Amino acid sequence: MVLPVVDVRDVKKVYGKKNEHPFLALDNISFLIQKGEFVAVMGPSGSGKTTLLNVISTLDSTSQGSIKINGTDIAGMKEDQLADFRSRELGFIFQDFNLLENLSVYENVALPLSLQNMPSKEIGIRVNKVLGTLGIEGIADKYPTEISGGQKQRTAAARAVVHEPALLLGDEPTGSLDSKNAMSLLKVMKSLNENQGISIMMVTHDAFSASYCSRILFIQDGRMYKELRRTTTREIFYRQILDVLAEWGTVQDE
Ligand SMILES: Nc1ncnc2c1ncn2[C@@H]1O[C@H](COP(=O)(O)OP(=O)(O)OP(=O)(O)O)[C@@H](O)[C@H]1O
Taking every annotated instance into account, which residue ranges of this chain make up the domain ABC transporter (predicted)? Predict the structure, then answer.
């Protein structure tokens, strides 16, 4: 039996203590992400997207319900087990890249493997492979201050997948890129998804970015609002996404 890569059941997240006006940020959210899916989470500001990403990425705990990543229930794990789990099973790609400025592109990408104490020869093989996949082998010796925004985001993507995680998580990964670099990163993510079989879940407010995904989860007020599967061309899917956003009064132009 193939286990889903993400299994979220009846998850609630309450912020604040009980006697201090608790706020229900996630309200009985349940969904599955199967291996090989590329899923976007969309919703109005304050709907709980980042909260959902944080509890799935094990950076925050739930108040109720269960979350399994690749079959492992993350609720009962201690902090050191969680850190180990995160470093093996998850990859993160953020809007602001989070590259270390005093390390070269090669060293930034190698970091997750160095932290796992992998032999340097094997690190070299893996890093060079992923730099090639993302088309940035030519800038391996440059430093983050010497490369473009698009190259920084590719470096961040390479670092996020170099350890071959079960799940790649993105928080507005195209958010700080111009449209050309955003499209280029989305194509890279789609190719990692289709050719390397990496499962991806990303939060985005951008319908164009979401149209590269195979499924969209729309959340509102901490609840599942709607789900949209791509069964058609990217262009038609984009219009279908815009139709849902229009229900919230959030219309965008491509
Ligand atoms: N640490 C916290 N303590 C109390 N309330 C919080 C906390 N973090 C988030 N919230 C509240 O929970 C709700 C969901 O926040 P969250 O950041 O998940 O929304 P979001 O959908 O990611 O929003 P945005 O699109 O604006 O980033 C919001 O109403 C927010 O004010």
Answer: 6-246
Classify residue 241 as exposed, middle or buried by CB count within 10 Å of its CB (0-12, 13-18, 19+): buried
Set out the domains of the chain in order of their start, with CATH numbers.
6-92+167-247 (3.40.50.300)
Q: What is the ipTM of this complex?
A: 0.97
Please work out whether the CB of residue 48 comes within 6 Å of at least one atom of ligand 1.
yes
Instruction: Name beta bridge partners: 169.
Output: 92, 201
* pLDDT, tens digit, 9 for 90 and up, residues 203-223: 999 999 999 999 999 999 999
Residue that is written with structure tokens 């790649």 in the block = 168
Average pLDDT, the chain: 91
Q: Is 50 in the pocket of ligand 1 (CB under 6 A)?
A: yes
- Judge if the beta carbon of residue 174 lies within 6 A of ligand 1: no
**Residues 194/201, Cβ–Cβ less than 8 Å:** no
Range 133-159 burial, b when 16+ CB lie within 10 A, else e? bbebbebbeebbeebeebbbbbbbbbb
